[in-house]
Amino acid sequence: MFQNQYYQELDVLSVNAAKLRNYYVPFRNLTEAFEAKDRTDSSKFRLLDGEWAFDFYPSIHEIPVEFSAIPQLPLTKEIPVPSCIQNHGYDAHQYVNVSFPIPYDPPYTPYDNPCGIYRRSFELESLGDEAYYLNFEGVDSNLYLWVNGQFVGYDQVTHSNSEFDVSAYLKKGTNELTVLVMKWCVGTYFEDQDKFRTTGITRSVYLVTREKAGIWDYKIETPVDLAKQTGTLSFTTPYEGEVSYTLFDPQGNQLLAGTGKKEFSLIIEDCAYWTAETPTLYTLIIEAKGEYIREKIGFREFTIQDRVLYLNGQPIKLYGVNHHDSHPDLGPSLLKSDYYEEMLKMKALHMNGIRTAHYPKSPEFYELADEMGFYVISEADVESHGVVNLVGASADYNLMARDEQFGPIIMDRIIRSVIPFQNRPSIFMWSMQNESGYGVNYEQAQKKVRELDPTRLIHNERAAQPDLFRENDFSNLDVISRMYSSFEDVVRYCESSAIKKPFMQCEYAHAMGNGPGDLADYFQLMEKYPSFIGGFVWEWADHAMYLEDENGQRVLGYGGDFGETLHDSNFCVDGLIFPDRSLTSSAIEYRNIHSPIQLKGVKNDRITLRNIQSFLTGTAFSAELSIHVNGEKRSDLPIDLTQLAPLSEVEISFEYPQVTTADYVTVDLILFDNQGEIVARQQKMIQEAKEETTIAICDLSIPSLRVRQEQSYYKVEGTDFSYTFNARTGSFEQLNVDDEALLVAPSFIHIWRAPIDNDRHITSQWRQAGYEAGQWNVIAMDIIEEATSVTFRGSYRLGMPSIQHILVMDLTVTIDNFGEIQYDFDVKKGNNLPDMPRFGVVFPLKKAFNKAKYLGYGPYDSYIDKHYASHFGQHEQEISAMFENYLKPQENGNHWKTVKADIIGPVMYQITSPKPFNFSFIPYSATELTNAAHSYDLPEISGHYLTIDYKQNGIGSYSCGPYLKEKYRFNDEQFKWTFAIKVSR
After folding, report:
1. Is the confidence at residue 694, as pLDDT, over 60?
2. Bond before 107 cis per omega within 30 degrees
3. Is the dihedral of CA 793, 795, 800, 806 positive or negative?
4. Are strands 532-538 and 318-322 parallel, antiparallel or unpaired?
5. What CA–CA distance (Å, rounded) separates 278 from 372?
6. Which of these, 526, 915, 869, 952, lies nearest to 683 by C-alpha position?
7. What kind and span of H or E run contains 431?
């Protein structure tokens, strides 16, 4: 049995690890510290990343017992550091959201605990009278460390730095590090986060050379005096020796220099304050005992007054996103360059906040957030969500939160998330945990964090789940934080006089698959209520990992694709960007909704623009403001954004164009950056066309139609067309024009959509109601033959065995002698049935139909509650551009509020309706999308599917959030609908 079973002991938090300190890297002199681009430029810093020798063991007990004393086993393989072993062919990926991946039996782990042994050698040309500290910035789930065969120590907490003084173990020449890493330890019970569960040295490893008995820990605070426009740099340290300091302004000019002991304060006149919009940083270099340390200083002060969040005296809103460390190639091992690219994308989408879900990041992440400008909620590495899945009364959300035996380990994890990053200006709030209940253990930790850092806010969303067996203490919490609150709850919180704290959504708008559909509604509430300080969308990126399919091809997988029996399927594929980091249409939706310059509204002959930035004028942008009629630009309006002050509005007058009641009139705002790239687009519809009656074209000079009946089929023949109509289904079996068959399968009337991820809680109701499998039954059919048209008038009922009827439908289909088809529906829904997914007609067209021109919302797909990525206008697209290839296939490609659409192929189908309709034109049917588990499971394309819909249910966030607002639901009890298809040769 493996010796030193620290990994199964609650009271062993670490062994021989160095005392916790704030993060910094020392430099050898002032010039090196000032000029260094990053920490690798320090001559006192040695990065040990790269290829390490490695071997994997399925069980810790397969390692020879003597290894604990003399870790000299030969290692036969190599693995990169940082990385996770699952991305390199060892063990297997497992995606779990809530459940613990091991039996709940703390502090014990399964006997067969998979592990890996790492080894790395490095040279020391000399070994001076200095101290050497070995740092591991993240090891999942724990580490045992040997240096030159001698045991040094043990540590855990996956997303936390582990530092060891290895001075006594090093030698001149070749030195050897050996690290044992286990998949599970007692910490596993506190790291039950919604993510792929991984193992390995997942973050950087480095050696730092230090002066012995030098400075170790210090704290920097930056209060501001708005009246005097000053900032104070307050420095305190327990170090007893003298500390010299040099402060440089943001342009690199030396401002102040001096010395102090234990503490000093510097007052900066005409101080340039730090914000996410203006991330201005000063540079402080401190020297103690010949060691130089650089800190980037942001002068800023966050306060709450009257339930409003202020930064430097200005109210701010949090337009944020939750960010996991996840990448299909890298697993959780994101480097600084990866963070940089992700933050660039966030900035381009107008995000100003990041919640580090659900653990602290590597130090370089926070330095980038300081530099690029983000408001960061830094979360502790604590989640014990799995307790809710225990059996019976044991399933208590607060089980570990109230059990005082877990108090020390919870306290340790929270303190380890605070002290290392206590000097980072980007962090404005500490988050105690995620989904781990509430109780005395968190109250004690919150009190301690307040003592350590009274300058930042404290967050604990699980205060929403108070311990019912005691009086709870919320005194150290600064916000009412909730996940996925309904719109009604948001209003209730914000309008309640009894609530004294601001309201925030640490998670909202579930961006899973084709979603979310409620971003605009939440944004409008943030704008309306000063006490609603903002929220963080769930989440940034889809989680997926590569695997080989049966043909040896690399494909992306989610939960259940890696042989795991316990998993949560594709619930990890829930981001605003795809695994390959390309943007979804939902990301563009977010970008446009959160535009820094808002098109607020139009009243009479005045257009109102609002700058929602708190600190910047509109100088960073140029804009095009224009009036469009039926998608065509009629006029440009002059606009000067440079004078648009923060949080202010401007009105612009315009002359209403000459239009008729049949026209659609919009005002469009396109925002550009200084490089001329579009950074947002907003639009207001200021006139919608009045409904007009669709009338079939008649021409007595064209020969009349011929009708032939074959059982329930009717063949209608004109001069150059023949249509086969199936009276039993009310649909066309085939459409022939100029002797060419245009359908690859019969058309059909449908109410089913391939469930989007946000339909997951209503899909079973839809299936139970027969929406997927219901069949049409014709009750009566009349045929009316006239000189220029043939009309089929039928009564139908949609039903399914064992349940009540779904729909009663009176359908009239008219075909005129030009070949135009007109549908007239009168539909009544059955009793006690859920909202319908959709209602419409599908035409499976030949692949030769490959382009669409339409007047409606595009170019991205659009729905009643998700259409802000798009705009109303004239669009022309290839079919390939109208389909979004989600890893888990689902409904997509719809175009809401379409006025007319032309489908182009061997002939052109022109679709019109008296009122706007929905249409999509994509390469797959709803059935094919429904049945495919992955995008690569979709069948070979056999046709191009034109869908013309009366209505669709909204998108929402119902996989995690509230159900759709009433106005977005397709719950019509009865409706009438008309549309027509004209053939143009």
Report:
1. no
2. yes
3. positive
4. parallel
5. 9
6. 869
7. strand 427-431
**In the block, which residue shows the tokens 């394309």?**
941
For the beta carbon of residue 786, count every other beta carbon within 10 angstroms: 13
pTM: predicted TM-score of the whole model, two decimal places: 0.96
Reading the block at residue 6, the tokens are 């620290």
For residue 954, CA distances in Å to 897, 974, 980 come to 13, 18, 25
pLDDT in tens, 454-494: 999 999 999 999 988 899 999 999 999 999 999 999 999 99
604-636: pLDDT as tens digits: 899 999 999 999 999 999 999 999 999 999 999
The answer for residues whose C-beta is within 8 angstroms of residue 665's C-beta and 6 or more apart is 627, 628, 629, 656, 657, 659, 685, 686, 687
* Sign of the dihedral defined by the CA atoms of residues 558, 564, 565, 568, in that order: negative
- 803 CB burial (10 A radius; 0-12, 13-18, 19+): middle
DSSP 147-193: ETTEEEEEEE-TTS-EEEE-GGG--SEEEEEEEEEES--GGGGGB--
What is residue 966's DSSP assignment? G
Instruction: Tell me the three state secondary structure of residue 461.
Output: helix
State the residue for tokens 């006594």.
168
Can you read off the two tokens belonging to residue 179?
A: 């690290």
- What domains can be seen in the chain, in order of their start residue? 6-27+38-210 (2.60.120.260), 219-303 (2.60.40.10), 596-687 (2.60.40.10), 706-984 (2.70.98.10)
Q: How far apart are CA 825 and CA 896, in angstroms?
A: 19
Q: Which two tokens stand for residue 606?
A: 């005045």
**Residue 103 is which amino acid?**
P
Question: 488 in helix, strand or coil?
Answer: helix
C-alpha to C-alpha distance for 205 and 88, rounded to whole angstroms = 19
Please determine, for residue 985, whether its predicted confidence score (pLDDT) is greater than 90. no
How many residues belong to the chain? 985
Half-sphere exposure in the Cβ direction for 675 (13 Å, CA): 3
Torsion angles phi and psi, residue 743, rounded to 5: -100, 140
The tokens for 125 are: 């040309």
CA 972/CA 480 separation, integer angstroms: 37
Distance (Å) of CA 826 to CA 9, 547, 634, 918: 70, 50, 38, 18
Nearest C-alpha neighbor of 57 from the set 85, 96, 93: 85
C-alpha–C-alpha distance, residues 263 and 284, integer Å: 14
What single-letter DSSP state applies at residue 32? H
Residues involved in catalysis: 435, 507
Encode pLDDT of 366-411 as tens digits.
999 999 999 999 999 999 999 999 999 889 999 999 999 999 999 9
Cα 613 to Cα 593: distance, rounded to the nearest angstrom: 14
98, two tokens:
């809530």
Spatial separation of the C-alpha atoms in residues 534 and 241, rounded to whole Å: 44
What are the b/e assignments for 427-443, b being 16+ CB within 10 Å?
bbbbbbbbbbbbbbbbb
What is the spatial distance between Cα 35 and Cα 343, in angstroms, rounded to a whole number?
24
Q: Which two tokens stand for residue 160?
A: 């936390």
Q: How many Cβ atoms sit within 10 Å of the Cβ of residue 212?
A: 10
Residue 792: CB partners within 8 Å, gap ≥ 6?
Answer: 714, 725, 727, 730, 781, 782, 783, 811, 812, 813, 814
Both tokens of 171, joined, read 């030698």
The half-sphere exposure of 260 on its side-chain side, counting CA atoms within 13 A, is 18
Contact 897, 919 (CB under 8 A): no
Token couple for 34: 């000032």
Fill in the DSSP letter of residue 546: E
Give the amino acid at 43.
S
* Among 886, 888, 911, 880, CA closest to 898: 911
Which pLDDT band, with edges at 50, 70 and 90, does 70 fall under? confident
Residues in Cβ contact with 320 at an 8 Å cutoff, skipping those fewer than 6 apart: 351, 352, 353, 354, 355, 375, 377, 534, 535, 536, 537
Q: What type of residue sits at position 630?
A: N
